[in-house]
Amino acid sequence: MTDQWPRYEVFKQDRPDGPFRNVGSVHSPDAELALMNARDVFARRPSCVALWVVPDAAILRRTAEELAGEQE
Fold it and tell me: Which among 32, 28, 52 is positioned nearest to 42, based on CA atoms?
């Protein structure tokens, strides 16, 4: 068991027509505070038009090797 808060991945959009990119992560007890923390850390510059925070556990990950193995 850990006493650390859950991790949230942070995605940032720099232009209204631009893609969202992963810019890092924050730890927080809930999504609302995660968004506020992400704003403080990743949205200090005016180029940020939108932020998303996603619980790390909700992200499905595969390496390039795993993806290649799934296609066989």
Answer: 52
37's tokens: 């923390």
Count of CB atoms within 10 A of residue 45's CB? 8
Instruction: Report CA-CA distances (Å) from 40 to 45, 51, 62.
Output: 10, 11, 30
The rounded distance, in Å, linking the Cα atoms of 5 and 28 is: 5
**pLDDT tens digits for range 27-66:** 999 999 999 999 999 998 778 999 999 999 999 999 999 9
User: By the 8 A CB rule, do 8 and 55 touch?
Assistant: yes
| pTM of the full structure | 0.82
Q: Report the distance separating Cα 24 and Cα 64, nearest Å.
A: 20
